[in-house]
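Supplementary Note 3. Input sequence used for the single-chain structure prediction.
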Amino acid sequence: MMTTDNENNFISRVKRALKVPAKDNRQYRHLFPNPPKEAVQSVLKRIENRSVEQRQELLHQLIEAGKPINLNVIAKKDVYAVAAAIAGLVQENEPEWGHAKQVAVWKHPLIDRLKLADALAPQDVAVHETDFADPETETDGRNRIRKQIIDAFIGVTSADYCVADSATLVMKTQPRLARTVSLVPTIHIAVIKIDQIIADLKELYTLLKHDPDYDRQGITNCLTFISGPSKTADIEAVMVHGAHGPRELHLFVIIGGESSGRAKK
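The predicted structure, written as discrete structure tokens, is reproduced below.
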């Protein structure tokens, strides 16, 4: 590990290479030039003003991009249709270990509207939310949720964005939205609205940079990118799904009126 002197010497060398005065203590975001405001505004305006037809085209692009990587993209009219479809997946699948079916879900506004506890009640399936009083201090709450996620065979999350051209879910780390829900259970189900689909990484990074939370928080401690279920071909070049995470990934996209409020006709 570097000492303070070594750190200072290293930073001084970087400043000299960048031709920055030694006493200049700019933050990381100020070390890199910003793109022209016109270019940024053009990208933001394009996203904001997408028509219903353009959003449908992005959805179709996402569905096609998901096929080669085993990402199952399913469009549904509303939260009720999504809840019914998830209940169907729970009924069709069996846990890889244990006997009782358990589902772990994010404590998230969109996931809350699914009312999965009610939808799964006829099957007597326990639904565990990633919610407890204080994620920083309540050790018992963290341990309880950790065990529930480990015991669950399906994890249900939302996402911040979905990149159409690479079929990639993008999730910012936030309190009460445990990353393990998307990593530990055998089956990962994600639910988004159609206006959360964006075209490419250029649009993603433009949105992230101009997110109102960016100036308050800076870069979050984790930004997760998920493209399809877990897979590896490390052993004898044989593709295996589920080696380091979920073996299945289902993405439900809500296309009803409430989900496309920003779209223009």
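Residues 259-265 have pLDDT under 50 and may be disordered. The first helix runs from residue 4 to 17.
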